[in-house]
Amino acid sequence: MATDIEIVPCLSDNYAYLVKSGESCAVVDPSEAAPVQAALKRRGWKLTHILNTHHHLDHCGGNLDLKQQTGAVVVGPGKDAARIPGLDLGVDEASGWEFDGRKVQVLEVPAHTSGAITFVIDGNAFTGDTLFLMGCGRLFEGDPRMMWTSLSKLMTLPDETKVYCGHEYTQTNGRFALTLEPGNPALQARMADVNAARAKGVPTVLATMGLEKQTNPFLRPGNAEIRKSLGMEKADTVAVFGEIRARKDRF
To answer: Which residue out of 29, 80, 100, 167 is catalytically annotated?
Structure first.
């Protein structure tokens, strides 16, 4: 059964995602209920599940309203059960999950929050605020080593994996990336595409993991040009990653 995915813009720059397969329909990270309900009505879909990648309210603020309206089952990080509104089923790497009779990979990716997870459904990775397109999340509940470990785990996914992240941050992330690696032709080409999309008001999601590996500085702390830009040619990988994150915090 093919998986159908619809992007649902929420709040000012958040994305929720409807994921439909057979009679099952999940929404990933609903910050608010109204846009999700409007998308469901437009598509004629019935919500069966609510998936949360982490506990921040701009990713689960719509849980209780949607659950009350639809009876959908709330699935999220078991290790953060106390902070997920309406959680019915806590999952982790060992448990995984099942959607429309198929296995769903759950990756534990802490650092933005201590309980953050990524759902991988039919080659589509819903990364929340851990991996953004050309960026990564702030380290609210972790440190550079923890985030680098989490991103390294995501990089083990096949290059053709499609990445669906939590926010429309791609243009700003790309501008930052160019300050570190202006000589990267793949990055230059991608930014041309991103700028064109944003000029039309079109979302920049999705991208592939392979493209992220070529253009996302947070996945490239071993790159020689980035290290030279930072003056850290001989530093260890985690130290370089930490400096990239610190500079992005100030960008």
So the answer is: 167
